[in-house]
Design brief:
Layout lengths: L12 H5 L7 E3 L6 E3 L13 E3 L4 E4 L13 E3 L4 E2 L15 E3 L6 E3 L12 E3 L4 E4 L13 E3 L4 E5 L12 E3 L4 E5 L12 E3 L4 E5 L12 E3 L4 E4 L13 E3 L4 E5 L12 E3 L4 E6 L11 E2 L5 E4 L11 H6 L4 H33 L17 H7 L8 E5 L2 E4 L4
Parallel strand pairs: 1-3, 2-4, 3-5, 4-6, 5-7, 7-9, 8-10, 9-11, 10-12, 11-13, 12-14, 13-15, 14-16, 15-17, 16-18, 17-19, 18-20, 19-21, 20-22, 21-23, 22-24
Antiparallel strand pairs: 25-26
């Protein structure tokens, strides 16, 4: 039953539908319905599978008797003015696969009883005033694919159970007050396409395990307190189309591989502490696709981004070039070899001087060329008066003056 009620402004017609025991489909979305949901709604057919009141002007609370509609597979009350809390009895609707209660004025906590709905694969509670934490019991909803909890007043840490759904496609929890780290378990989400945790109070490093989410297309981590560098594992995210890391405490160089991600069309790195040279290829070629405002230590990039030219010191910060490292290595080796050579040379000459023999008289020594006659005259005919000793080789005389 799909009604277009035009200017009908009341919900009294629901009373008459309680007699329709075979009613399976009721959709009055997008009308001008005004007023509160009657308690008689709890008496609608248990065979009802589709109940939709979206985009109306319904206010007041959700009747607790809704738990009687055990045949429901889809409940849609989005875009109204509903107040109060989400009835705990919703957890008794074991066949429900989709719940849409977003864009209302609901308050209180997310009931943990939702974890009893094992078939639930889409939960939309965004745009309300919900408080408290995400119940870990949602980890029991093993078929979960879409979770929309953004624009509430939720707090606490993100439960790791939220990131253990192998079929999860989209998670949006932006504009809340979540704290702590982004769980490493996010890397389990092999089918994840959209992750949005913007504008919370998350801290720590961006988990490198996100590089395992090979189907990821949209990643929004902006407006938190993340620190450290951009994980090198992001090089595997070849399907990534939008990446927003702005307004965090990230630092280090902007990875060169980002310019090689073929699908990347939006990159926001503004208001961090990045430094060094900005790449120029890929997404960095178009100033309308990349933003790096508020990073005072960046340089280079295309002219449209109006960054200062990179100085030699800036290049040094990106790491010493291979050529420079080779030159320095060669100089060090040469100096070491020169020092060793000098040491060995000095040692050689010292040792050689210690072993140097007593100088042998030259054959040109005048005493070696004296004739017998001259010797005879010099010793006065080998006179005993000139004899001073007897050696092993004969007599020793002194020359007569």
């Amino acid at each position: 039953m799909n009604l277009e009620l035009g200017k009908l402004m009341t919900l009294s017609f629901l009373d008459s539908l309680t007699n329709c025991s075979s009613l399976k489909w009721l959709d009055v979305s997008g009308n001008h319905l005004d007023g509160t949901l009657p308690n008689s709604m709890a008496n609608l057919s248990t065979q009802l599978t589709w109940l939709a009141f979206a985009r109306n002007r319904i206010f007041g609370s959700i009747p607790s008797g809704i738990q009687n509609l055990v045949g429901l597979t889809m409940l849609d009350m989005m875009n109204n003015f509903l107040t109060g809390t989400i009835p705990v009895g919703v957890g008794k609707l074991k066949k429900v696969e989709e719940i849409f209660l977003g864009a209302n004025e609901l308050s209180g906590q997310i009931p943990s009883s939702l974890g009893n709905i094992s078939r639930l694969y889409q939960l939309d509670l965004d745009g309300n005033s919900l408080t408290g934490s995400i119940p870990s019991s949602l980890g029991n909803c093993t078929y979960m694919q879409f979770i929309y909890l953004h624009d509430n007043n939720l707090s606490g840490s993100l439960p790791i159970q939220l990131f253990r759904f192998p079929s999860l496609i989209e998670v949006n929890v932006r504009n809340n007050s979540f704290t702590g780290n982004l769980p490493l378990e996010a890397g389990y989400l092999k089918n994840l396409q959209v992750l949005n945790v913007s504008n919370n109070k998350l801290s720590g490093e961006i988990p490198s395990s996100l590089g395992n989410c090979l189907r990821l297309e949209y990643l929004f981590l902006d407006g938190n307190f993340f620190q450290g560098s951009i994980p090198s594992s992001f090089i595997t995210l070849t399907g990534l189309q939008s990446l927003d890391l702005s307004s965090n405490n990230l630092s280090g160089n902007i990875p060169q591989y980002l310019e090689n991600l073929p699908a990347l069309r939006y990159l926001n790195l503004s208001f961090n502490n990045f430094e060094g040279e900005l790449p120029k290829q890929g997404v960095f070629r178009n100033a309308s696709e990349v933003s790096v405002l508020g990073n005072s230590k960046l340089c280079g990039g295309i002219q449209e981004l109006k960054l200062p030219a990179c100085s030699s010191q800036a290049f040094k910060k990106r790491g010493m070039s291979l050529a420079s490292k080779v030159k320095i290595s060669i100089i060090v080796v040469v100096l070491c070899l020169s020092s060793l050579s000098c040491s060995f040379a000095t040692l050689y000459w010292v040792r050689k001087s210690r072993r140097k023999p007593f100088p042998v008289p030259s054959m040109e020594d005048p005493f070696m060329n004296m004739s017998y006659v001259e010797l005879f005259k010099a010793t006065d005919g080998f006179s005993s008066a000139n004899l001073i000793g007897i050696g092993s080789f004969g007599y020793v005389y002194i020359k007569e003056h």
